[in-house]
Amino acid sequence: MLRRLTMMRGSFAKRCTIVIIASICIFRSSIAHAQTSKEVEYRFKAVYILNFLQFVEWPDSAFPNQDAPIVLAVLGEDPFGKVLDETVQSEKIGARSIVVKRFHSLGEFSPCQVLFVSSSEKESFHSVLRRIGDSSTLTVSDMDDFGGQGGGIGFFMDNNKLRFEINMQALKVADLKASSKLLRLARVINPI
Amino acid sequence: MNESRICFSEKEQPRLAARRTSLHRNILHRRFETLVFCMIFFIAFGAEMRSATMGADTLSTSELKKISLEDLMNIEVTSVSKSPEKLSETPSAIQVITADEIRRSGASSIPEALRLATNLDVAQKNSHDWAISARGFNTDLSNKLLVMIDGRTVYSPLYSGVFWDAQDYELQDIDRIEVISGPGGTLWGANAVNGVINIITKSAKETQGWFVSAGGGSELQDFADVRYGGILAPNVFFRAYGKYFNRGDEVAANGDDTSDSWKKGQGGFRIDAASSPNNNITLQGDYYSGTENQETGGNGKVSGGNVLSRWTHTISSESDIKVQLYYDHTYLLSPKPAAKPLPAGNLTDGLDTYDVDFQHRFPLGGINRIIWGFGYRRTHDVVGNSPTVVFTPSVLNQNLYNGFLQDELTLQEDLFFTLGSKIEHNDYTGYEYEPNARLQWNFLDQHTLWTAVSRAVRTPSRIDHDFSSPTGLPAPYSYLYDAGTNFISETVIAYEAGYRFQIGSEASVSLSAFYNDYKNVRSLTPTPTTPILPIPLIFNNNLEGFTKGFELNANVQALDWWLLRGGYDLLIERIHVKSGSSDFTNGLNETADPQQQFSIHSSMDLLHNIELDLIPRWVDELHVNNGPTPGIVASYFELNLQLGWRPGKRFEISLVGENLLHPRHPEYGYPGLGREEIVRSGYGQISYSL
């Protein structure tokens, strides 16, 4: 009985090895494709931003006139590429179309309704907030703890899923109203 | 009959044939391994070619824009593959036990976690054995449930049932348990007659860092769990875990300790490489070993291990290919008591399973969603017979081939019709067919009606076909039970309907009704020609009949801090002997089920990070029929609770009390000295994550 047991264990190890080697052959081919998952992540973030545009209300004073488009700007290194433009082209919020602008640095800044702050601007984050002041600009970013540090909406990952937090105080200062549909799905910080 | 537990005794066959088959077996083994190797290289090569020509189109921006924000938040961004199929859009009676429910319930084993599915009948027999079934037939040799862990089948071909003492995992790392009541033959194959249980573990990415847990108590005397998860390379995650526990005795009807304590250790690993949204590879394995004291004397052993690999190749949100292969080895040693004039002895069983499965999902013509696949399984079973329990032949290789095809047609915007079938070929009965048809109507935004007709099959297991129990007495009384070589598959035609609805985001209710028509259910035919005692009793297919009932399940977020889940089941069983045939117990041996049962899981988040969960359950009486006269297990009402303090996600202390309302109570078994009762017990646990 004991001999049979040891014989069994030997062949068990051998069979396991075969399965493992076989699997490594399959798995080897997938390592080459490490690039595209970031692109997918930003596709998601672009669609989330489109949703934010739909469920946040800007005061009339945020726009020069009734026909002015909503300006969605990216500050710093652009992680979206053409994905952001693709997502918002031909979309309308109410009667307003959406226009995408890019600011390579804070010096190029001009008034906008949504400002996506790239994580490349992490160090100059507070200068950005000062520059915006209390104008009706929704700041969005995926840098660490963006909402906690005073940003408007911050992206974070939870168990592989894309989530966001909303800083109510920041929205209040900017005179922005977020619909309950959006608040229900967000992690809310600084509630008022 | 005095015992449902079959007594086994020795009967030797000539050994020449065995030696020849042994050589034959080695050649077949090698051929099989070569075949598997070739298949793998072919697939790997194909994957390389395919990836090189693939575009980056998984979920395109326009597809993403069509999905609501709420649903987007449920998609795993880094392994983007499926469109989210909400629970409310499945045309079957499915319940999902979540990781959080398991954590809060105080469950410390898989059978205890399964109590949380209200569509299952879960009965604890003794310290290490459980009887679990859905929609009836929860007999000692209950065989109508298909159980899988991460796609690996865990039932034993010895009797088509599950040895629950051998199934375990790091509970903290279980993502969810899907429990389907009702046949799942088309997608899952034979043995999924009354239900399918799918235990799904978390990916390695979700279990990073350290998790350490330890504790002890009165029945679960001491235990410790450790898991570490880390990164092997960019986008390649792994975890490794080890666990150990020591459980004490339950008691006999008079309150005395029985000697059925046991202890077990298990360890394993999982590696997930999700380097692109198009390809996911998983490699995982476990090994366990335990010893169990037996109430009837002696020490039993269980041990085993498995290695599984799975490759998912995503083509689009509605289309993917999955290939899975695994090797599983189980070993058990079960001491069998003497049955005069035969001595005591050990029954051993060593089972090797090799399994390869392929599955492809794709849309067609805008209204079809097709899924098809095929698979092959080979089992190599070696039984060491004991004096009173004999399987002939003692070494058996079996092949199982299967193919399936299913199409979901979108008839109108909210009306879906599914039609499909599986074809299997097994060594005992040849070809078996398991077709099903389902209709689903999402008639309002949060309301779904569904109905289904399915045929499912329970193919013979070794006990139906190869088993005999010698008595040691002279002819014609040499055998108590004998397998029937004419044993055919049991079949069911199941008619089901269900209604599922949600009330805002606060409550959801699900109601399922069923009528199952069974034919050729296992029976024990007495041998009429033997004077005085009509033995041997031959396994035959002389029972038929129906079961019907319904299952109600509801989840209510009563208050912000109070979640209530609960369910009620009604089961009416009418199984009888076919006219003109006979059965030793007149149709009563295959069923031991409560007519009604209900349970509630109340989860409360109290002040100061304290969590309190209360789980009362009530189970109707069981009529247990494997004895000289019908026996009863009384109905019982019991309560489990967990009180936990969880100041942050990293640290938790909990106190668990189980079966608190009575000092002891039986849940299963024929009344008498052999039946064990489950005692009131408790344990404490500390867990820490880094």
General description of the model:
The complex is a heterodimer of chains A (about 190) and B (about 700). With about 190 residues, chain A is α/β, with parallel strands linked by helices. Chain A folds into 2 domains: about 1-35; about 35-190, Rossmann fold (3-Layer(aba) Sandwich), CATH 3.40.50.2300. Helix content of chain A is about 40%, strand content about 25%. The longest helix of chain A is centred in the first third of the chain and has 30 residues, at about 1-30. Chain A is elongated and about 80 Å long. Chain B is about 10% helix and about 55% strand. Chain B is mostly beta strands and about 700 residues long. Chain B has a single domain, classed as Maltoporin, Chain A (Beta Barrel). The radius of gyration of chain B is 25 Å and the shape is globular. In chain B, the strands form 5 sheets. Chain B has a 22-stranded antiparallel β-barrel. A 5-stranded mixed beta sheet of chain B has the order 1-6-7-4-5. The chains are: A alpha/beta (about 190), B mainly beta (about 700). The interface between A and B is large, with 48 and 63 residues.
What attributes does this structure have?
heterodimer; A: 192 residues; alpha/beta; Rossmann fold; 2 domains; 8-stranded mixed sheet; two-stranded antiparallel sheet; 10 strands; elongated; B: 690 residues; mainly beta; Maltoporin, Chain A; 22-stranded antiparallel β-barrel; 5-stranded mixed sheet; 7 helices; 37 strands; disordered N terminus
